[in-house]
Amino acid sequence: MKYSATVYVSLKKGYSDPEGETTTNALQGLGYRVTEVRSSKAYEVTLEADNREEAEAAVDEMCRRLLTNPTKDDYSFEIREAR
């Protein structure tokens, strides 16, 4: 069965986020009352698995092995059957 996963990766609190800081400043410069912006990434992954549990385990392993740095990144993901 084919599954689609959206993986969200963001910096843990306490880590410098230069992109977020620059965006915060730019939005404030445009007159928005923004106090903080944190940047993040999203990956769209399509994979084959026998069932949802296998797909979840595979995506979690992908996150731990390649898509994130566990020292500085947090991640979450959503899985759905691909059409």
Describe this structure in words.
The chain is of the alpha+beta class. It has one domain (2-81): Phosphoribosylformylglycinamidine synthase subunit PurS (Mth169, Chain: A), CATH 3.30.1280. Helices cover 34% and strands 34% of the residues. The chain has 2 helices and 3 strands. It has helices at residues 18-29, 52-67, and strands at 2-11, 40-48, 73-81. It has a 3-stranded antiparallel sheet with strand order 2-1-3, covered by helices on one side. The longest helix has 16 residues, at 52-67. The protein is elongated. The termini are close together. The model has no long low-confidence stretch (mean pLDDT 97).
Architecture in CATH? 2-Layer Sandwich
What gyration radius follows from the Cα positions, in whole Å? Answer: 16 Å
Give the DSSP E fraction (strand runs of 2 or more residues).
25-35%
Work out the count of structural domains.
1
User: Main sheet: which strands, in order across?
Assistant: 2-1-3
Element order: H for helix, E for strand: EHEHE
Number of strands: 3
| Spatial separation of the terminal alpha carbons | 10 Å
Share of helical residues:
25-40%
Mean pLDDT: 97
The CATH superfamily bears the name: Phosphoribosylformylglycinamidine synthase subunit PurS
Task: Give the C-level CATH assignment.
Answer: Alpha Beta
Largest sheet: 3 strands, antiparallel
Overall 3D shape: elongated
CATH level-3 fold name: Mth169, Chain: A
